[in-house]
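Now for my pick.
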Amino acid sequence: MFFRRTEMRVFIREEHSGMIYKADLHIHSSFSFDSRSRPEAIVRTAAAKGLNVIAVTDHGTIAGGLACRRYAEANPKLGVQVVVGSEITTPSGDIHGLFLTEEINSKDPEEVIACIRSQGGLSVYVHPYREGEPDERLIELVDAIEIYNGRSSARENLMAQNLVLRLNKVGLAGSDAHKPGEIGKAYTVFTTDESDSSLFSQRLLSGEIRPVINE
């Protein structure tokens, strides 16, 4: 495992000492139409790869995230916390809601972001260049942008990194895993001062944030 810096820019928000999280913030389970990864396999694979946080972000549903969280909570020795999320397709691009408690049924991007925030969640514009040029008006509204996606091209990821630098947004990384072997291909390292490791949703956007490519 190593940090590859040849393609990645380094995004440091502020130096902190405290709890260190290794978080793959973009994983799909069998509750997505294009994945067969069972919840138990996702959690166990994440633990085996040294991840202590995963976000399960199935297409249009939080069901996979809830199932993974139940399994992780029933197996605390694995040491994996599950962020319940969903990937919502909108005409302006795909948006992740993280730390969700309810399904989001709207496809309107502004309504989607409002629904995420009403649940106390975080909004992330994922793989912003996969379908062409991103909607910069929407980018201004989201909490963070995915700057490294394990399934995007090097060019798409580099463009996303440049976008974050230009607009001074938070940059996050995730594998976009659709099968267990892809989990941890990319992840985000972040540090918080929060001593209660079950409470870190807003802390994710503070402290040191470092996207990592794991090859």
The chain has a mean pLDDT of 86.
